[in-house]
Design a protein that fits this description.
The structure holds 2 protein chains of 2 kinds. Helices cover 41% and strands 17% of the residues of chain A. Chain A has 22 helices and 19 strands. In chain A, the strands form 5 sheets. Chain A has a 5-stranded mixed beta sheet, with helices on one face. Chain A is globular and about 75 Å long. Among the domains of chain B are: 89 residues, Roll (Ubiquitin-like (UB roll)); 43 residues, no CATH class. Chain B has 9 helices and 11 strands. The chains are: A alpha/beta, B alpha+beta. At the A-B interface, helix 17, helix 18 and helix 19 of A face helix 3 of B. The complex binds flavin mononucleotide, iron/sulfur cluster (SF4) and FE2/S2 (inorganic) cluster.
């Protein structure tokens, strides 16, 4: 059935709500890649076995990840009239106990992490689960969740990402229909501009402005692309966004395509993300079936479709010009800009192209549904909205964290992450992926926004936060990242290709206690030149780990070198 | 030819004025900054720029400072197009500092290249702090600086695509796919001509041209029907013949350029004297 009107959409919403609140117990297993990796799929299989064998009247479903990766596998249970309960560290051997409790109208208390009486899906739908289970702590009182604000991850871990009806149930595609049938392209772009949204791919370029530039070029054809290359070690925000809520991305792209006048969209995703590819493929098929992609969307005459293009996992292919080269079948090597992607001759197959990160696209539906005014109140001035971070490394509570921009590092690492793992003291964090800088503990009152991180010598990047503790050797950390960057350099320009190699050789020497003070000086000078003269962002930022550790942890270098 | 002469030949481009190191120069709007500098004999070192190819921006030696809103910003002059009032400084302290390090990197990357040594020396760099790369098996004799000119000439100009970049990062080299003799090589030698460090080697041996740097690719040479000399690669001749009119084809197909000249002269004389075929 094709959805042509709000009435059609509302009808589908009812169908979806029936699935989320089926009037009987529903058990949902967190099955994003992170959940599967720790045995979530075995829990799911075991539960299915028991339910099938006894033909029990229980709905079993898959959901994405709510972000608390440390506590996985996570299972959530809804019993009609009762709050949703999240179980943690569930094992397949817990399956029988779970089923038994559920049949008796309860949950296994010893596995319960918290309860959710009502959940705000932000885009106009509050899911009222119910009251009860007073012994189980409230979601809002769990320190890991308490300081977070879920806007992008509002559905993650709660709805089935493989079922479009559930996305529609919690308000999905209502923004798309509002934009396509009730707004003109200009007013959509104005909303995005007024929201203050900045690109989540790393550089923080104003999204509305990029859209306007793309809209304003005169060309017979335009493309929009979603950058899902996510090549930073330790970063998996985009993966979870796609695995847990793929329709949010698709809806964002539909609205963007309409605003910019593009008929074709591509999602460039790394081949190392098979589950995300599978769920996106499925989501695209379902959206086509409902007429949300394809010809004459919502009877407006607007035509738009999305294709998936897979990349072979080269970090540099996340860079815009290399990404386009890669889709076109050429070697993924950056070229100097201009021409920019938005220029005639500069984009995909020469057509003007808008490129945005997964999370940037995911911000669009909520801006349209709740308005730019609402959106702009979240976060800080010039840095509006929330940002998802992957909090990893030597931190106690590992997971995906969503906070308003401008939240301090200390809130993220100490309050949400509970400091170092195994009670070790935290020494520094690295933000922004392999080319981010290491910020020392004493600067943890730094607000996490594009400008403050730059001032501290680091970058926002796509949102990786790697925690280092007192046992971490900072020189070794710098070497690790330079080694990564050297291996990922495309080899086109000399500062990055040769410069990083020599930086690595120098670091090896220093680590082997064969270095001199002179070597440290050379390393610093060389790093400066790589930053100042490299062609693309990879080389321009790759020395950040060296430069920041030299600035903040100089004593560790000095202890290794001969005078 | 002076700039005014070129412009008076009917180019539609708007004339603009740019200031380079405090002196004013005329240029066409959107002209490549480096080409303005080259024309005006302002020294900017460069290794990967070639007017007939797309801007590439890989060697990074041509970086200069552009003054915008009172602030200096480093840009590559081979990818910057001039606009009216553009202000450029080619040898500011920042540029000199970074360029010197780049030269040191080149001295380490291509330690056998005399061209690089001479160029670096002109800019005051005679030693490198970095470990020199010596690879005795390198088919480019440790002279290649990966400017990509040969690869681009082969692809963009000749359309042959016989050579390309192999590997990536510091392991990048230029060669044929899988280091096997190339079937696509025309033997045109454009790569040899365009290489700024004279790294690419080829040699004609009797009826064959050997591309020594490119996995010893052998290209057969065409023999002149008239004098018996081997004069051009067969594949190259075939590519060119495919582009000319049939009547010319007949004439060019069998002889070397010298004999062809003689042949044409002979024909003309015969025609004038009434003995045409
Ligand atoms: C080496 C390198 C890798 C990059 N990798 C990614 C990536 O994985 N995902 C991404 O969205 N942007 C990446 N970027 C940034 C993109 O070039 C581009 O700025 C971004 O996709 C634009 O989207 P936005 O405006 O929504 O941020 C990378 C940039 C560089 C230089
Ligand atoms: S900076 Fe590195 S990755 Fe970017 S073009 Fe230069 S060599 Fe390639
Ligand atoms: S000539 Fe400009 S970068 Fe090489």
């Amino acid at each position: 059935m094709k959805i042509k009107s709000v009435t059609d959409l509302v009808a589908k919403k009812k169908v979806g709500l029936q699935k989320i609140l089926p009037g009987k117990p529903r058990i949902a297993v967190g099955l994003a890649t992170c959940g599967i990796a720790v045995g979530g799929d075995r829990v799911y299989e075991r539960l299915k076995e028991i339910i099938d064998k006894d033909r029990l009247d229980i709905t079993l479903t898959k959901v994405g990840c709510i972000g608390y990766c440390k506590e996985e596998p996570l299972v959530n249970i809804t019993i009609p009239g009762k709050p949703l309960v999240i179980l943690h560290k569930v094992d397949e051997s817990d399956a029988e106990e779970i089923i038994r409790s559920v049949q008796n109208g309860g949950v296994p208390y010893d596995r319960a992490l918290c309860q959710v009486p009502a959940w705000d899906h932000v885009t106009g739908c509050v899911m009222d689960y119910g009251k009860g289970f007073d012994r189980i702590p409230l979601y809002d009182n769990i320190p890991f969740f308490q300081h977070q604000k879920k806007v992008i991850l509002r559905d993650a871990g709660l709805i089935n990402p493989e079922d479009i009806d559930e996305y529609i149930a919690i308000g999905g595609y209502f923004s798309a229909i509002k934009a396509l049938t009730g707004m003109d392209p200009d007013s959509i772009i104005e909303e995005v501009e007024k929201s203050g949204l900045r690109g989540r791919g790393g550089a923080g370029f104003p999204t509305g402005l990029k859209w306007r530039i793309t809209r304003d070029v005169k060309a017979d054809k335009k493309y929009i692309i979603c950058n899902a290359d996510e090549g930073d070690p330790g970063a998996y925000m985009n993966r979870n966004e796609m695995e847990s809520d793929p329709h949010m991305l698709i809806e964002g792209m539909i609205i963007g395509a309409f605003a910019m006048g593009a008929a074709e969209g591509l999602i460039y995703i790394r081949a190392e993300y098979p589950l995300a590819i599978k769920r996106l493929t499925l989501a695209i098929e379902q959206a086509r079936e409902y007429g949300l992609l394809g010809k004459d969307i919502f009877s407006t005459g607007f035509l738009f479709d999305i294709r998936i293009a897979t990349g072979a996992g080269a970090f540099v292919c996340g860079e815009s010009t290399a990404l386009v080269a890669s889709i076109e079948g050429r070697t993924g090597r950056p070229h100097p800009r201009p021409p920019r992607l938005t220029d005639i001759g500069g984009g995909l197959f020469g057509y003007p192209t808008d490129l945005n990160n997964v999370e940037t696209w995911c911000n669009i539906p909520v801006i349209i549904s709740n308005g730019s005014g609402w959106y702009a109140t979240i976060g800080a001035r010039g840095n509006t909205g929330t940002k998802v971070f992957s909090l990893v490394g030597k931190v106690d509570r590992v997971g995906l964290v969503e906070v308003p921009l401008g939240t301090t590092l200390s809130t993220i690492v100490s309050d949400i992450g509970n400091g170092g793992a195994n009670n070790r003291k935290v020494k520094a964090v690295q933000t922004g992926g392999p080319s981010g800088g290491c910020i020392p503990f004493r600067l943890f009152d730094t607000p996490v926004d594009f400008e403050s991180l730059n001032k501290a010598g680091s970058i926002m990047g796509s949102g990786g936060i790697v925690v280092m503790d007192e046992d971490t050797d900072m020189v070794d950390i710098a070497r690790y990242f330079i080694n990564f960057a050297t291996g990922e350099s495309c080899g086109k320009c000399v500062p990055c290709r040769e410069g990083l190699k020599h930086a690595l050789l120098l670091l090896n020497r220093i680590m082997a206690k064969k270095g001199t003070k002179q070597d440290l000086e050379t390393l610093a000078l060389l790093s400066d030149t790589i930053v100042a003269t490299s062609l693309c962002g990879l080389g321009q930022t790759a020395p950040n780990p060296v430069l920041t550790t030299l600035a903040y942890f100089r004593d560790e270098y000095d202890a290794l070198v001969k005078p | 030819m002076t700039h005014e002469e070129v412009s008076s030949m009917g180019t539609a481009a708007k004339l603009v004025t740019v200031t380079i190191n405090g002196k004013k120069y005329g240029a066409d709007e959107d002209e490549i900054l480096l080409s303005v500098a080259v024309r005006e004999k302002i020294a900017i070192p460069h290794l990967c720029y070639e007017a007939s190819l797309d801007p590439y921006g890989a060697c990074r030696l041509c970086m200069v400072e552009v003054v915008r809103h009172g602030k200096r910003e480093m840009v590559t002059s081979c990818t910057t197009r001039v606009t009216d009032g553009l202000e450029v400084v080619t040898d500011g302290p920042e540029v000199v500092k970074h360029r010197s390090i780049l030269f040191e990197l080149y001295l380490a990357e291509a330690p056998k290249s005399e061209v690089i040594k001479a160029m670096a020396a002109r800019y005051g760099v005679t030693k490198t702090r970095f470990l020199k790369k010596i690879d005795t098996t390198d088919s480019l004799g440790n002279k290649c600086i990966l400017c990509g000119l040969c690869v681009r000439a082969c692809n963009e100009l000749m359309g042959a695509g016989a050579i390309g970049f192999v590997n990536r990062g510091p392991y990048t080299v230029v060669n044929t796919p899988y280091f096997e003799a190339s079937r696509d090589c025309l033997g045109c030698g454009a790569c040899v001509k365009v290489c700024p460090t004279n790294a690419v080697e080829m040699e004609d041996q009797k009826n064959e041209r050997i591309m020594k740097s490119w996995s010893n690719t052998r290209v057969p040479l065409a023999q002149c029907d008239c004098c018996g000399r081997y004069y051009a690669p067969k594949a190259l001749a075939a590519t060119i013949l495919a582009r000319v009119t049939p009547s010319l084809k007949e004439e060019i197909a069998r002889c070397c350029p010298e004999c062809r000249g003689k042949l044409i002269a002979k024909k003309e004389i015969l025609a004038k004297t009434g003995g045409a075929r």
